[in-house]
Amino acid sequence: MNTDATATNGTPTSPDGLEREIERTREDLVGTVDAIVERVHPKEVADRNAEQLKRDAQRALEQAQEQASDLQDRASTFVEENPDRAKNYAIGAGLVLALLFLRRRRRRTRTDG
Description:
This protein is mainly α. The chain has helices at 15-40, 42-81, 83-112. Helix 2 (42-81) packs across helix 3.
């Protein structure tokens, strides 16, 4: 005699079948709750966020390196094609830096003395 009779929707109707179904459902629920607890646990959240930050930082670093390389190539091309202009820009930048240095030095001597 079959004690595992089921309804037309597949749900067991016998007491033993119902108990087994309840136990399976309980085990599924425990597994689901454990997965949720693990997912929202502060350390797990922090670890996931840290990993995402590392990936984002790596991507930003790679983009910055590509842009720096591109800028270096463009500057080299500019210097090769316009040596006089490049020399004038370098002299101008040097003068600006020298003026900033002297101005800063003068401020320090005023505040020290």
